[in-house]
Amino acid sequence: MIFSSKQVQPAALTAALLLALTACGSGAASEPAAEEGSDSAAELTVYNAQHESMTQAWVDEFTEETGIEVTVRQGSDTEMSNQILQEGEKSPADVFITENSPAMTQVENAGLFADIPAAVQENVPEEYRPTTGKWTGVAARSTLFVYNPDKISEADLPTSIMDLSDPKWAGRWGAAAGGADFQAIVSAMLELEGEEATAEWLAAMKDGAKIYPKNGAAMKAVNAGEVDAAVIYHYYYTADQAGTGENSSDLEPYYFKGSDAGAFVSISGAGVLKSSDNQDAANQFLEFITSKEGQETLSTGSDFEYPVSAEVTPREGLVPLAELEAPVVDPAKLNGEKVVELMTDAGLL
Question: 67 burial class (0-12, 13-18, 19+ CB within 10 angstroms)?
Answer without folding.
Answer: exposed
